[in-house]
Design goal:
Layout: H1 2-9, E1 20-28, H2 45-63, E2 84-89, H3 92-105, H4 110-113, E3 115-117, E4 123-125, H5 127-130, E5 137-139, H6 158-165, H7 171-179, H8 181-185, H9 188-191, H10 205-218, H11 230-248, H12 258-276, E6 283-287, H13 290-299, H14 308-311, E7 321-328, E8 342-348, E9 359-360, E10 370-372, H15 373-381, H16 388-395, H17 430-456, H18 463-472, H19 478-481
Parallel strand pairs: 1-6, 2-5, 2-6
Antiparallel strand pairs: 1-7, 3-4, 7-8, 8-9, 8-10
Amino acid sequence: MLSFLLPVLLFPFLACAAETILGVFIFSRHGDRTAKSTPPAALTTLGYRQIFNSGTYFRNRYIAPDVASRIVGVDSDVVEQSQITVSSPVDTVLMNSAQGFLQGLYPPVGSQLASDTLRNGSVISSPLNGYQLIPIGSTTAGMGSEDSAWLQASSNCPQAILSSNEYFTSSDYNNLLASTGAFYKSLTPLINATFGADQISYKNAYTIFDLLNVASIHNKSLSALPLLTDSVFSQLRTLADHHELNLAYNSTDPVRAIAGSTLATQVVQGLGNTIKSQGKSKITVEFGAYASFLSFFGLADLLTLPDSNDSFMGIPDYASTMTFELFTTADASSFPAVEDLQVRFLFHNGTMDENSKLTAYPLFGQSSTELTWTDFEAGMGRFAVGGQKQWCEACGNSTGTCASVTPSSSSSSGAGAAGSDSGTGGGISKAAAGVIGAMVTLAVILGSQAAVMLVAGLRVVKKNQLASRAANENGVGEADERKV
């Protein structure tokens, strides 16, 4: 028994001859869900299985005993809470996906490992065969994102919303809106229970694709409808990919990719915690919407790769993952010096299983898939938005949580601060400035929402009117989808 335990006990002091994984940051999309156009969206049983399989894959890659890429010093069976950090937006689809992923990452340990002996000698076993409880931190960014048809609606960033709206006035958008009009109208019998006649066009490319994609997976009656051929579905997917990429990223307007900029900061912070803790913090897992993937792909120069059309130009499939490995090829008998640390970026489109593999890609236009920590941190720093102050300034927010970190609209450094233009010498009080800032921010948000509703042809209707229309139409709608 001692000979078996010795390698484990001495493990932190052992050197690795080749490569040692010190920590990882995993960013994952949720599993299969119901359609966004029939909220509230919900994780399906298929989605639960997909995300559980993904967690199991990462367990077998980084955590299970005796695997080649096992994270140095990680606890393989019973989770050590200090080694793992998990977060998700307050969103039922994403939060539930995070829980399912963790069940695969650290499965139940059985009654023997999950039991306590009390002072009176009685033995208490954990419920659910030793089900392991791992806290999931909630993030404000992306709240309710899976119930929002538009990816910027949950960003809380007015400047990003305005930037995305600019796509709806571009020549690219208007050309596709005109050239694909007949194509989308041909789909009317399939979607008229959910979309009005004025909504069936390229302006709703993603939500139309999303509805039919969900139906193609779950709705048995769809197979009897000849309209949705493989070629039609492929065209729907291509148009939705193009539509959403242009809403998530623009090379000349970085704020449009605020989701990717925020993610970049979180990745550096997650791996940075591994470095600062000298390897005690090992695993960071975060769940988010597809907008973060697309934004990051653009910011990190992944769209310019030769195979970018296959890997990065489209909406990632359910349970897709981006992984950042922190590793060293130096002596790992103690935690390596910063100059001996390297980072590798890996991506897999879709859910993971025993036949899947992560593929490494070069970041920032580099030729190598391996970057020194210093180069990686500098590359991410080119577009990362970190800290409340920087985020507030980038998004143009000056109220709420941003009020304490953004400059006041008026100076308070003496009598001359009021300026001579006011005529009164009194200037604007902080309270008045706060009210004005709140009204401006509210006007921006309401104006953005109105613009989206106008462009997308959306309108406010009573719930009973929607239910009545869905019950009387023959297309693929809420009534059909609720059956599966």
